[in-house]
Amino acid sequence: MTDALLDAARDLFPALDEIGAAVPPGEALPRKAMDLLADAGLVGPMVPEEVGGLGLDVLATLDLYEEVARADGSVGWCYFASDLTAAYFGAYLPDSGAERVFAEGVPTMAGQFAPNGTARAEGDELVLDGDYRFGSGLAHATWAGAGVMATPEDGGDPDYLFACFPADEVDVQGGWDVMGLQATASYDYAVRDVRVPTDQSFDFFVPTVHRGRDLHRLGVIPLTAAGHAGWALGVTRRVLDELEGLAASTTRMGAPSSLAESDRALVEIGELEGRWHAGRAFVREAAAAAEAEARDHGAAGVRAQTLLREAARHVNQGGADIARQAYLLAGTTALRDGPIQRGFRDLHAGAQHFFASPSVAADLARVVLAEA
């Protein structure tokens, strides 16, 4: 089945590429992009089968994230962000909440889950208030989510919860005027007195796995890292494909030969290609090891989780650097609008994300030094 899914994603490449290239800066992807993915049976790779998802393992999920992102960075970003969000709620909500959220199959979901809001308990409901940014894909989402600090009715210590609710209950405020990932429509949004049944929320720190596969035992942070890693690999692959495709026909002004005949350019292109393959191998090794540890021990340890996070940081920051070097090699071809320029912008936008933060490398250093 996974080979057929990957073939279906590859078949969508021309259509998704055309859609992504045609979106005016700052406007949302047309709904058609999400519909094409749905029609091809590609919705929900990480979402548990019990709620209508594909229920794939982590490596098969990474393959799909990578392939969709190769077609277009904004499409790929909305795809993995919605899938991750649905995977969280599909795995960690109790049955009553999951039945409600997934009543019509896997929904398109969006939201920001940093604890930028509050929730007060009123009986069997939470009343949410907060201001959020980066609601990637919110323009087409049917369900929205938010991270909140929830104070119990007895006034005890607050819990950090993820909650979800119909998307028409949020106040979308816009605010997406950016260099890269322009078509993700990662709008700011506000939540005011939104009432959410408590069974449509789960504890971020200790989510209960009600359904799903071994990878759902990893928890939110490692799963999210895997999503960002797959996306970065796909966009970087596209940049390299485009560079290599034009090497024979591109001669920089003043150069005696094309890129394909220049020893210096050949060395640089070969090094960039090697860096991509090395990064991809790191991601897949770390993801598979974390999933295996979760299978064997019920959870992945700190080292396995941190290695997966570092792999995501590595390919996001490395992808931005590869794209910059490819952009310079391609000369004025990349200066004009096209896949290399778009990939350059998208990868630099992705490299600003928390999951590409240098702090992850410091976390890994602390882990390995503690073991030394």
Automatic annotation (TrEMBL):
Any idea where the Acyl-CoA dehydrogenase/oxidase N-terminal domain is?
27-85
Which parts of the sequence belong to the Acyl-CoA dehydrogenase C-terminal domain? 227-357
**Keywords, alphabetical:** Oxidoreductase
Q: Tell me, what is one Gene Ontology molecular-function annotation carried by this entry? A: acyl-CoA dehydrogenase activity
* InterPro entries for this protein: Acyl-CoA_DH_C (IPR013107), Acyl-CoA_Oxase/DH_mid-dom_sf (IPR046373), AcylCo_DH-like_C (IPR036250), AcylCoA_DH/ox_N (IPR013786), AcylCoA_DH/ox_N_sf (IPR037069), AcylCoA_DH/oxidase_NM_dom_sf (IPR009100)
Q: What name does UniProt use for this protein?
A: Acyl-CoA dehydrogenase family protein
Name the species this protein comes from: Iamia majanohamensis
